[in-house]
Write a structure and sequence with these properties.
- This protein has 75 residues and is an all-alpha fold.
- It has a domain of 27 residues.
- Helix content is 60%, strand content 0%.
- The protein is built from three helices and no strands.
């Protein structure tokens, strides 16, 4: 489910102009550039959480190596 939110910020005019130039150099709109930036942050956060979970579960050990057939078995 896609939820859209409006964001309001206070930004210096020079920063907005730089943002506009960067968006133009990438053939993006400012909105597309912002969404790209936000997705990048969200992706890094998800990756960080995944790595933290894998560290937390590192103790788990099945006690043996499974065969290819066992790993692909459907139940």
């Amino acid at each position: 489910m896609l939820v859209r939110r409006n964001i309001t910020s206070n930004t210096d005019k020079a920063d907005i102009e730089t943002w506009q130039e960067e968006a133009g150099s990438r053939n993006f709109t400012r909105h597309e550039l912002f969404r790209d930036w936000a997705r990048g942050i969200a992706g890094r956060v998800r990756a960080w959480k995944y790595r933290a979970l894998m560290r937390k579960l590192r103790y788990a050990d099945a006690g043996r190596t499974f065969t290819r057939d066992e790993m692909n078995e459907r139940r």
